[in-house]
């Protein structure tokens, strides 16, 4: 996604766009749909402002994700959202290709800026490592496997794993 510096008006540029999931080339799991898939298009809502040579991207990027709950394995669709607040400055001679250490900072070269990698990076930073159907999901019973959100099980509450039985002999 290319932005030309000379096309950013004084009052800024507003970008409200949707892209197909294939645009998220850094998320192969969402594209191939194995275990997790995108449930819709990638959306971003951005305001692009220019102050001299600096370009400021502010807004958000989101994608709906269909996967299973990490606790109860039920199907869940959640909207993954990431705030975008990035300042881009021209590359300095001799520093071409250097990576920025601050995620809110980036560089560009020439009169065109490709903001796609910056947006993909922001989404990657905020992508959850697990998904839950609801915050208080009770999960599955570790003994009988019943979904505790839907029914109760009759397992013994204090059933101990036999591998830990020797520890009961220790005195405190």
Q: What would you say this structure looks like, in words?
A:
- This protein has 172 residues and is mostly beta strands.
- It has two domains: 2-137, no CATH class; 139-172, no CATH class.
- It has two helices and eight strands, in the order E-E-H-E-E-E-E-E-E-H.
- The protein is elongated, with a radius of gyration of 24 Å.
- The longest helix has 11 residues, at 116-126.
- The strands form two sheets. Strands 2, 3, 4, 5, 6 and 7 form a six-stranded mixed beta sheet that branches.
- Strand 4 (42-51) and strand 5 form a beta hairpin.
- Helices cover 9% and strands 35% of the residues.
- It has helices at residues 28-32, 116-126; strands at 2-4, 13-19, 37-38, 42-51, 54-68, 75-90, 105-108, 112-114.
Short description:
9% of the residues lie in helices and 35% in strands.
Q: Please tell me the total number of domains.
A: 2
Instruction: Please give the radius of gyration in angstroms.
Output: 24 Å
Order of helices and strands: EEHEEEEEEH
Structural class: mainly beta
Gross morphology is: elongated
Low-pLDDT stretches are: none
Strand content: 25-35%
């Amino acid at each position: 996604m290319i932005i030309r510096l000379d096309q950013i008006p004084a009052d800024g540029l507003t970008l409200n766009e949707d892209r197909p999931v294939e645009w998220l080339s850094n998320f192969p799991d969402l594209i191939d749909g194995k275990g997790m898939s995108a449930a819709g298009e990638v959306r971003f809502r951005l305001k692009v402002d220019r102050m001299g040579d600096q370009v400021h991207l502010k807004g958000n990027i989101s994608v709906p994700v269909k996967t299973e709950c990490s606790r109860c394995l039920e199907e869940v669709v959640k909207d993954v959202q990431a705030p975008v607040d990035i300042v881009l400055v021209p590359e300095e001679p001799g520093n071409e290709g250097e990576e920025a250490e601050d995620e809110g900072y980036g560089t560009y070269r020439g009169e065109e800026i490709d903001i796609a990698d910056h947006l993909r990076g922001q989404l990657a930073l905020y992508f959850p490592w697990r998904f839950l159907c609801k915050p208080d999901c009770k999960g599955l019973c570790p003994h009988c496997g019943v979904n505790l959100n839907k029914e109760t099980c009759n397992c013994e509450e204090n059933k101990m794993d036999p591998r830990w039985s020797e520890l009961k002999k220790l005195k405190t």
